[in-house]
Specification:
Length: 453
């Protein structure tokens, strides 16, 4: 007999209870955590244990770019398992060769030597080690509004408050921080374009006054810390600064890569090729854990006669590589990079209209299908409702209150401190975009009621 609705609900409650009792909920206080049980997902929607559907308006963690349950990628996972489940990284495999060849089609020209990991965090760890080995230098400059991962070096390189609990890991690990590029609320109190890209010049000042700088790491378009899009001159200027001082440029495209911004990679918007590009998430639409650290031939040549001191058991794992090939093929077949670019004006117009109707919306910004809506208590001062300190101390956040109400209405959206990240699967329709934005429009009244008069 089929299960009754009551039995399914009970089973779902048990799944949630066991998860809560036996697992850590990440980046949160454990008290009060009650994770929603996701039982199924397809396209731009996921379904909870009671059968309720939710629009996945941020593609889970800005990663399910193909949407859920793409049949070709699902089959590729099974096919790779039948072909070869595992081989130690010292061996060559067909999956490794196929993906390496495919990457040369889509990565920025000049990035042609690869290290395969199983997450963006691990790929960044590889990038830091490679940069230090290849340059013989130690320090790495990151930026304050940044997130690069949760392992020892990657969290030390993270500028946002997720790093605080690990201090003094950053300084002890050789990471130092520069101001982010945020033309809406400049951290060094300049105004674009009169600033002449002072935030890039600040990094050059740091390089000149800090000995031993191996690399600068940036998210070309900052991810969870606000979808910060730099002005056109920024990345080309930073590329020249790094060249002038013999410093490597690392682009963290874990979130912004794979068509999310309307180009295969965000650096493509500015015609910049980094020395090292790190990515993950969309490389398999997050169906299988895979991270990539790609370097130039110049860096690779260093290791012809020097020991490459890095590796791990799951490096170049065949089961992660095979599905990545099909993910890229599906993106090409469905023209999803082009689709993200084509939908950008529609999303931007809808968000600008939303801003006009809500005094709590201070800024909307983004590229492709990667946008942020920033909330403020006061538009003139740009004062946010909450601070980084509020986040780590577990105080209620206005954005979380809104996200909770949106979830009740069937829309899942990522919130962080004072903004929302709108990054649906790249297969999203205009009707689905309208559904998600209608829910946001409805519940922004919560923030509107709290603005300064």
């Amino acid at each position: 007999m089929p299960e009754t609705a009551e039995a399914k609900t009970l089973a779902s409650e048990e799944i949630t209870a066991v998860t809560r009792q036996t697992n850590y909920g990440t980046w949160r206080f454990q008290k009060g955590w009650k994770p929603l049980h996701i039982a199924d997902a397809e396209g731009c929607w996921f379904i909870d244990g009671a059968g309720k559907r939710y629009l996945d308006f941020s593609a889970q963690l800005m990663c399910v770019n193909l949407g859920h349950k793409n049949s070709r990628v699902v089959e590729a996972i099974a096919e790779q398992a039948r072909e070869l489940c595992y081989a130690a990284p010292g061996f060559a495999t067909a999956a490794r060769a196929r993906l390496s060849a495919k990457l040369l089609e889509v990565l920025p020209a000049g990035l042609d030597k690869f290290f395969f990991a199983t997450s963006g965090t691990e790929a960044n760890e590889a990038a830091f080690k490679i940069a230090r080995m290849a340059t013989g230098k130690t320090k790495i400059i990151s930026r304050y509004r940044s997130y690069h991962g949760s392992t020892a070096a990657s969290i030390a390189a993270t500028g946002d408050p997720r790093r605080w609990a690990m201090e003094p890991g950053g300084k002890a690990s050789g990471f130092i921080f520069a101001p982010e590029t945020n033309c809406y609320d400049c951290p060094i109190k300049h105004t674009y374009p009169a600033c002449n890209i002072a935030c890039a010049d600040y990094i050059e000042h740091m390089i000149r006054n800090e000995s031993d700088v191996a690399a600068v790491i940036v998210e070309p378009v900052v991810g969870t810390n606000g979808v910060l899009v730099p002005p056109p001159e920024y990345l080309p200027r930073l590329r020249r600064i790094c060249n002038d001082h013999g410093v490597l440029l690392i682009a963290d495209e874990v979130m912004a890569g794979w068509g999310r911004t309307g180009k295969w990679f965000a650096v493509n918007h500015w015609g910049v090729t980094p020395d090292i590009l790190v990515t993950a998430k969309g490389i398999t639409s997050a169906y299988i854990p895979l991270g990539l650290c790609a370097t130039t031939a110049t860096i690779a040549a260093f290791f012809d006669d020097h020991y490459f001191a890095h590796g791990h058991t799951y490096e170049a794992h065949p089961l992660t590589l095979g599905p990545a090939v099909v993910t890229i093929e599906e993106m090409q077949r469905l023209k999803l990079v082009e689709r993200a670019a084509e939908l950008e004006p529609y999303v931007r117009a809808r968000l600008e209209a939303l801003k006009a109707n809500h005094p709590s919306v201070g800024d909307v910004r983004g590229l492709g299908l990667f946008f942020a809506v920033e909330l403020v208590k006061n538009r003139a001062s740009k004062q946010p409702f909450n601070t980084m300190r509020d986040k780590v101390e577990g105080k209620p956040l206005v954005v979380d209150q809104i996200a909770t109400q949106m979830l009740a209405d069937g829309v899942s959206i990522q919130s962080w401190l004072s903004h929302f990240v709108i990054a649906p699967p790249l297969i999203v329709t205009k009707e689905e975009l309208d559904f998600g934005l209608a829910a946001l429009n409805k519940h922004l009244s919560i923030a509107d009621a709290l603005v300064d008069a």
